[in-house]
Structures are given as structure tokens and as C-alpha cells.
Amino acid sequence: MKKVLFIDYDGTLHDSDAKYKARLDGILGLNGMDIWRAYLQVHRGIVHTQYPEKHDDFFFHQRLLFDYLKKPYDEKAANELAGRFRQAQLETWTNPSFYPDALPFLNKVKERHILCLTTGDYSPEKAKALEKAGGVSYFSYVFDKDHLGLKGHSNSYYNNAVMSTNSRPEDVIVIGDSPEHDIAAAKAAGLATVWVNRRSIVLANHLPKPDFEARDLTEVLSYLGKI
């Protein structure tokens, strides 16, 4: 049965962790991955839940990040941090590192389903990077927060995505790596979900379970083949 697949980019198709780790190494005397994971905790666990209006305020994030890391705020380090974050962000589409299963997955599912790139930022650039790498056009729709609102707020993102694609909720499957932004938000919107849990993390008790949990996109492909 043909489905409308809402597919996330960072952490699902693209190894964004590696980009940020490499760029952030050494800041504040810390490992780049430690800084990146702390940032995600701040962004997803604090800003999105308590201050969604501050989603794009990076310097607000920085203040919280220094507190989270138990480091005194240092303006020089903060400016360097902002520059390195921006470099890493740009590289997610100018010099991408797609997971080995990403393009084979897209090449398979595009024959049977309607594909929509549902990411947070810079969706046209990310879609073009994928299409350049694969040599074909994958997506019927390309969405980010500028089109639909913030991820993690289902009424302003996934509900709008369903309407924008003229789909029925029962025909949509959301595929993403973030239990908070992708899975919880999609479940709240009444959509089926597939969690790509590449890092084998344990789902927090307060978050809803996905309809299917996969270690990679190869397992997602097998799941879709049974629908």
C-alpha cells in the first residue's frame, strides 16, 4: 500500500553528530561529542519545552549550555562556539556525511511511496544535497519550520504537513531519530511512527512508544515491505 513518508534528515539520513563532534572538539576543554549532546539536551529538553519562542536564539542557547556544562560564561569562547556551530551546520548540506543506508533506502522507497523531507532547518538545501548524491529527485514535498512551524509542536508541524500534502493521517508514516521532536510530536498528531534508534538509546518513560523501532534504515525498509 502506498504511504506518505515524512522523513527526517539529521540523525536519520545524515550523520550530523559526526559533523558537530569534529567542529566542536576542544571548545571549553571538552570533547566535541560531549558538547553536542549537551546542546541537544538544552535545545530539546529546555528550550523546546519551556521557551519555544527562543528556538532561533543561539545566544540564549549558549547561556543555558554554559550553565548545563557548569562552566562560567565566557564571551570569547561563546563567539568561537557560535562560529563552529555555524560551520558544522553548513557542512550538513555543503559537505554531507550520509549514512551508508540512506541513499539505498531512498532509492527503494521512492518507487512505492510519496516522500516528504520533514526537517527543522534549511530543508531545500538538504534535499538538494541528497538529490545531488543520489542523482535523482526524491521528494514530492520539502518542509521545515519556516513552512510548518517548530518540530516538537505537532499542531504547528505535522498537522500542517498532513494538510499541505492533502493526505489522510492514516496514510502517513513519520520516520525520524528524535523521540521528542519526531516520534512524540507525530504520535500527538495521530500519525504512525518509526523510530530510527541508531545509538541504541533507552526511550524515556514519559515519551510515547513508536509503532516500530529500527536500528537503521535497512530495518525500516523491511518494516515498510510488510505493510
Could you explain how this protein is built, in words?
A 6-stranded parallel β-sheet has the order 3-2-1-4-5-6, with helices on both faces. The N and C termini lie close together (7 Å). Strand 2, helix 6 (123-134) and strand 3 (141-143) form a beta-alpha-beta unit. The chain has 10 helices and 6 strands. 48% of the residues lie in helices and 11% in strands. The model has no long low-confidence stretch (mean pLDDT 93). It is globular. It folds into 2 domains: 4-15 and 96-225, Rossmann fold, CATH 3.40.50; 16-94. With 227 residues, it is an alpha/beta fold. The protein has helices at residues 16-24, 32-50, 58-68, 75-94, 102-109, 123-134, 145-148, 158-164, 179-188, 217-225; strands spanning 4-7, 114-118, 141-143, 172-176, 192-196, 212-214. Helix 1 (16-24) runs antiparallel to helix 4 and helix 5 runs parallel beside helix 10 (217-225).
Instruction: Report the CATH architecture of the largest domain.
Output: 3-Layer(aba) Sandwich
Rg computed from alpha carbons, rounded to a whole number of angstroms:
17 Å
Helical run tally? 10
Write out the strand line-up for the largest beta sheet, numbering strands in chain order. 3-2-1-4-5-6
- By secondary-structure content and strand pairing, the structural class works out as alpha/beta
Give the count of structural domains: 2
CATH homologous superfamily assignment of the largest domain: HAD superfamily/HAD-like
Helix amount: 40-55%
User: What is the residue-averaged pLDDT?
Assistant: 93
> In percent terms, what proportion of residues is strand?
5-15%
Shape: globular
CATH fold-level assignment of the largest domain: Rossmann fold
**Low-pLDDT ranges:** none
